[in-house]
């Protein structure tokens, strides 16, 4: 496999008709003769953006001739530029070769702190261009050879090798596709390499994901080193699967487990699959619908024991300690916990402390996050409890969809039994894992190796803050409360630079978060998650006279090429992953202003949202503002902000173990109950409204009046505003008194 990484030459004479111009072009030609492309530029331009070229270059050659030292002033300028250039490169990349190409005076003038970062000094006229080219190309090649981590390296070699395979997959390196027209299309779209690299686990030289051997194992060890954990497992089926593996490795039927009520559904699936008896920790919530932290008090073991004592399904013979605690570490909106504080409270009280860090794999790579993530450099061990973190590489880092990993930190007294753990790992892994996903786990980890990884995280932090500053600037320029869209976060925002942790702590009683009296130092907000608040609802749940429901705004944005991550009632959410660009967030700021303009003029929907109107012509002549007003009035009439808060905070009464309730579904011992008759019934399925996508009821819990009121509201709303439906997983359509209505499967009552 030949990769394309040009050698970049920076020389102000690159295009000049003088001696140094001829000289440098001769060198460029000689390098190209060695088979590497050359890119010649005459200056750095904007240094920081120029330094980004380090990701696609194999070497830099900076040419400085003696003439540039004619005056002291010029010499100072040249040296300062060079120093900054080298610093910008080394901030991101410790290894890429940088050569200085110059004359006698160059070498004398360049200070040692700059020279030290160079791979060599090439004297312009001492050797032939061909000789210099061979030397530079050798260094460039050896740099490129050092880049690929073990599995990715082996896979590229295998794909390039061209051996005939008799093993599956049946498409045989893509050949099967070439035999049919639509197959040809598929082949052309994805390309030869993706298909050549799609191999099965009969290929010995690539190692085995299922047994953690060979290059796969080498890559998992490499990632464990980069992420500072004792064990690391790549998972090719998402953190949904990672969570189930962690649970199945340590939880058995009847075990007591402690779970964040704001958890991903894969954790609830784990409860059902293992037959565990859950007790829940309830997070705070504000009336924007933003879920806050679980208060520190809730984590105290006395509190947890009280909950266990109150649970009717805990067997007298159950082990004294809960088997596992699972916390959503980084909520959707970016709320984080101080992990050291949790370890201190629960070490030895709960066997496994599991942090679901689907949204937080970046935190280990920047000091900003301190102790507010599970496992990292120089983090102490628990005496007894094991620490697990599950991370969606694909959400925040550069992994293909479903790329995920499990990180483990042993305790002082206990080490992970890898053989036992692997039994649970096998239970949830396909025997035909997708090798491109393994390679992306491998590469995503290698990308985070310092200094490159920390530089990437620092960039997303900086962009996230610049976005927040830009939003404030628009606000200031409009003045008089004429600008409506705010980014949720602390009042104080520094004027420049990257964030300071202290500024992002959630402090007791602050109005912006509305989570009440939080314990000092326990929670912070990750600024790279940005929740935007639209007007119409305040943090107390009071509705204003008018408003812009976020669902309308995000549909508008989608038609203008901006797709957001999650939409709430009066908020939506975007994030600054390491893939962020200035263009992306600037476009959002511009489109929000465009929306405001269209809203103020109440422009008809057929003009401003034509794609939506093609699907829902009933709104054709409705004005943008009128539509917002209609939906706003509907929300207001049903007091929906308080309703949803109340519903999520209401005491859920378990009537059965979740696994027993789900068993009724498997045996079809369920009634399909219409919404109006649900109060008091016991659900046999998960009920999850989107937004926010947090399960509301789990199998074995009883419907209360508030939840039924919410479901009726959702039914009426969906009837009145097609196209803006609240989606509720768990509701099924069925015949209700001769008409189609919404039902939930419930356990048959005795
Ligand atoms: C997305 C998510 C998961 C599941 O991750 P996938 O990689 O999509 O399977 C688990 N937990 C939380 C908190 C998540 O947000």
TrEMBL record:
Tell me which Pfam families the record gives.
OKR_DC_1 (PF01276), OKR_DC_1_C (PF03711), OKR_DC_1_N (PF03709)
In this UniProt entry, the residues modified to N6-(pyridoxal phosphate)lysine are: 395
Listed GO biological process terms: L-arginine catabolic process
Please provide, in alphabetical order, the Gene Ontology terms of the cellular component aspect for this entry: cytosol
Give the matching InterPro entries.
Answer: OKR_de-COase_N, Orn/lys/arg_de-COase, Orn/Lys/Arg_deCO2ase_major_dom, Prn/Lys/Arg_de-COase_C, Prn/Lys/Arg_de-COase_C_sf, PyrdxlP-dep_Trfase, PyrdxlP-dep_Trfase_major, PyrdxlP-dep_Trfase_small
Q: Name one GO molecular function term.
A: pyridoxal phosphate binding
- What residue stretches are annotated with the Orn/Lys/Arg decarboxylases family 1 pyridoxal-P attachment site domain? 390-404
Keywords tagged on the record: Decarboxylase, Lyase, Pyridoxal phosphate
**PANTHER family linked to this entry:** BIODEGRADATIVE ARGININE DECARBOXYLASE, CONSTITUTIVE ORNITHINE DECARBOXYLASE
Q: Which family does it belong to?
A: Belongs to the Orn/Lys/Arg decarboxylase class-I family.
Instruction: Provide the protein name.
Output: Lysine decarboxylase
Q: Which organism is it from?
A: Denitromonas halophila
Organismal lineage:
Bacteria, Pseudomonadati, Pseudomonadota, Betaproteobacteria, Rhodocyclales
